[in-house]
Design brief:
Oligomer: homodimer
Structural class of chain A: alpha+beta
Enzyme class (chains A, B): ligase
CATH topology of the largest domain in chain A: BirA Bifunctional Protein, domain 2
EC number (chains A, B): 6.1.1.15
GO molecular function (chains A, B): ATP binding; catalytic activity, acting on a protein; proline-tRNA ligase activity; transferase activity
Mean pLDDT of chain A: 96
Strand order of the largest sheet of chain A: 3-7-8-14-11-10-9
Distance between the termini of chain A: 38 Å
Protein name (chains A, B): Proline--tRNA ligase
Number of strands of chain A: 23
CATH superfamily of the largest domain in chain A: Bira Bifunctional Protein, Domain 2
CATH class of the largest domain in chain A: Alpha Beta
Number of domains of chain A: 3
Subcellular location (chains A, B): Cytoplasm
Low-confidence stretches of chain A: 1-5
Chain lengths: ~475, ~475
């Protein structure tokens, strides 16, 4: 048993093997573990705590904007899932099917929800009669199951945790505004909580959600130059409403169909945090989402007063709202340093006998290893709070600079391929709007259209077919 | 469309048909709705908000006592569920079985978790090596599936929401202390949050959890005199540890098996709230668990200043931590009163033009209909907070008196049957400890042993067999 030695939990370097580095971090930072069913992971306390931080932040935003949480059944009758044609086509190949309940074979197979549009629609059709019943702004926190062949922790799994919002509105205008509002909330959460700058835009017809009229997306850029779709917000029009008969009597005494949205983010966001901010020593957590922001590590903790001081500091910091812990285990300080590093805890606070004499402590920043000596006085908490805020800003600016440095314009297909294979990241390309050209780019380069830049000024021609461009599109290789 | 009329949502009286009254309240208070799969209900916003209140309260308690949340997979391989003999025997008849994933038949069937002991055990066996890794104090909030033939909203469903705690410890003593600690937290939550007095005790061998060495329970008494098992805490000994090989190297350098617990409460607690406190006008919510504590209902809201005042009051109360809403819909006040009543909102605050003139408002208590006139001054929030606390105490004392009035001692089987058929409630009976006698009581009376009173002084004889009593047992008909 390694005990009073320095921990040596070396992980693969990012530049040597990024994929291996990623799974090393996932496991050694104890975010997750594999279960005995392929594609089904265990969210360990540290990984789940990260998800809880995200949940708390977003749930508050959802409620402030008038949304209510509900819980729909986990199982969907096969016939119900089939009611909207595009939708079932999109999800049928990924379904987990329950064929037996109790000791009997079921009369109708039940599908474990891959997403819950059909359940919400069926319910809405029952409970909505009048304009007075609108809007309905529901959200659900749950897990969903999509049978995947290739799986990676947090990025693609057969079961994952997420939230799915489902709203219905009296008018198209309201529903469109809701779609954009939720996209904004996603973008804002990424920026202010996760220190991740997102590219936002609209999916192409080919890449949009099964059954949606329009899909908007937030896309993050990983350290290896690949994009990660991190959240989507869909406008459904009245397609589902017609398939499920969700009608209401409007103020003008006419029966009308509702207009609908859905939107979701998942534990993929954990993957984004890891791959945007992590380094060769492990996880690096943005302070606002870090379950522990400061780890106090006593030096020579057996010496008089050291542990007492550590616990006193813990109370002092806690009182100022800092998420703080003391590592008082019987491991060596070096071992504790490594563990705190691997787990990406933003600040490490060392306090030992000599510090006590001098009335000071040493604080180390995870993000760059910088060490600062601080006085053990009544200003300590304020100084640390400011430091945490500065670190957030520093991490965001670093990620933003990296992302901006990896958005490149291309005019020709050769140029496109060249950038993709040297620098990676996003490549903005004029596009004619034909699926054929989009597919050819994917087939030849493995880069997919991430989203249409809805604010870009469109000029130039599609480099594939030479026709006049209709859109400027962000392409990238993606997870 | 009923609009400016008084709402007339009459529900069945409790005394006419308690079962019908119960489902009427569940549906008309909009706590739940049925889905198209039997036994799978929809938790509507109001019902889910109640569960969120319970979650928030308990999750805090769990974390304060050192527990961490995790998330385990939803699916369990059939062979894994079979690893502990008693456990699989208990759950096999209730399993929902996934036999297809994607487009293929599975090599091994997967069971939707009916409970997650086996998953936790498999994980613990992998991650625990040394005494330093102990204890592990994990909890999970999720839903589970148990195929039930007869279902009732919140009380018995094929899917329900719950928390399941699973802990492992180095010693039997620690694990036993954990079992009792969690029972205490359950009892305290029921008392302080839900205003429900619980009978606590130990389950008989026959009634204990499949695989447990001992099961402790909290039992609530419903208005119709039937008991409702509302939470359980299990001590497992090292039975699962041996079946799953969860060993650790102790300080004395010996390999030992861990000692284990699990404990859970579910959305059954919503059923308890409804059936303990509800009345013929609907739900009656204890203030601390009520998602909305005060409903402000403007009278003649079209008149100048009325709505403004209502919103001003809302802000004032909110600033003092009161959960408050304004009902500014275009329904009549009478309709709004009925709705607030049906939903069991503790206080209704009426404010109209005449109140504005007089600088006052009328507050009605849901629990007894009492009306109070209060000044619209800076003390209003404090007065309401005090009122809410008083209502909690009043509701708890009422429920306690009812429960105490429904605990009766019996010495003979005749006496037992007589009490059961006239008064209902709990009957305390001396019992020899033989399962045969316990079964006979159940078969002849439909009353089951709810729990052993572990603190009772035991004397007398078992009225069934005449042998010397080993325990005093609470019997009752139960949900």
């Amino acid at each position: 048993m390694a005990n009073n030695k320095v921990k040596n939990d070396a992980i693969t370097s990012r530049d040597v093997d990024f994929a291996k580095w990623y799974t090393d971090v996932c496991r050694k930072a104890e975010l997750m573990d594999y279960s005995s069913v392929k594609g089904f992971i265990i969210y360990r306390p540290y990984g789940y705590a990260l998800w809880e931080m995200i949940q708390a932040y977003m749930d508050k935003k959802f409620k402030e904007t008038g949304h209510e949480n509900v819980y729909m059944p986990m199982l969907i009758p096969e016939s119900l899932l089939q009611k909207e044609a595009d939708h079932v086509e999109g999800f049928a190949p990924e379904c987990a099917v329950v064929t037996r309940g109790g000791l009997d074979n079921l009369e109708e197979n039940l599908i474990i929800r891959p997403t819950s549009e059909t359940l919400f629609c069926e319910h809405y059709a029952k409970i909505v009669n009048s304009y007075r019943d609108l809007p309905k702004l529901y959200n659900q926190w749950c897990s969903v199951v999509r049978w995947e062949k290739t799986t990676r922790p947090f990025l693609r799994g057969s079961e994952f945790l997420w939230q799915e919002g489902h709203t219905i509105h009296a008018t198209e205008e309201e529903a469109r505004a809701e779609t954009m509002q939720m996209l904004d909330i996603y973008e804002e959460t990424s920026r202010n909580l996760l220190a991740i700058p997102m590219v936002t835009g609209k999916k192409t017809e080919r890449e949009k959600f099964a059954g949606a009229e329009e899909t908007y997306t937030i896309e993050a850029l990983m350290h290896d130059g690949k994009a990660l779709q991190s959240g989507t917000s869909h406008y459904f029009g009245d397609g589902f409403a017609k398939a499920f008969g969700i009608q209401f009597l409007d103020k003008d005494n006419k029966q009308k169909y509702v207009h609908q949205t859905s939107w979701g983010v998942s534990t993929r966001l954990l993957g984004a945090i890891i791959m945007v901010h992590g380094d060769d020593n492990g996880l690096v957590l943005p302070p606002r989402v870090a379950p522990t922001q400061v780890m106090i590590i006593p030096i020579q903790q057996q010496k008089d007063g050291v542990l007492d001081k550590a616990y006193e500091l813990e109370q002092q910091l806690k009182a100022h709202g800092i998420r703080v812990k003391v590592d008082a285990t019987d491991k060596s300080p070096g071992w504790k340093f490594s563990e705190a590093e691997m787990r990406g805890i933003p600040l490490r606070l060392e306090v030992g006998p000599r510090d006590l004499e001098n009335g000071q402590c040493v604080v180390a920043k995870r993000v760059n290893g910088e060490k600062i000596t601080l006085s053990l006085d009544e200003n300590l908490s304020q100084t640390l709070l400011q430091l945490l805020d500065d670190i957030h800003e520093e991490m965001y600016q670093k990620a933003l600079a990296f992302r901006n440095d990896h958005i490149t314009n291309a005019k020709t297909f050769e140029e496109f391929k060249d950038i993709l294979n040297t620098k990676g990241g996003y490549i903005k390309l004029p596009w004619c709007g034909d699926e054929e050209c989009e597919v050819r780019i994917k087939e030849e380069t493995a880069a997919t259209s991430r989203c249409i830049d809805t604010e870009a000024q469109v000029d130039g021609v599609c480099p594939i077919c030479g026709k006049k461009a209709k859109h400027i599109v962000y392409f990238a290789r993606a997870y």
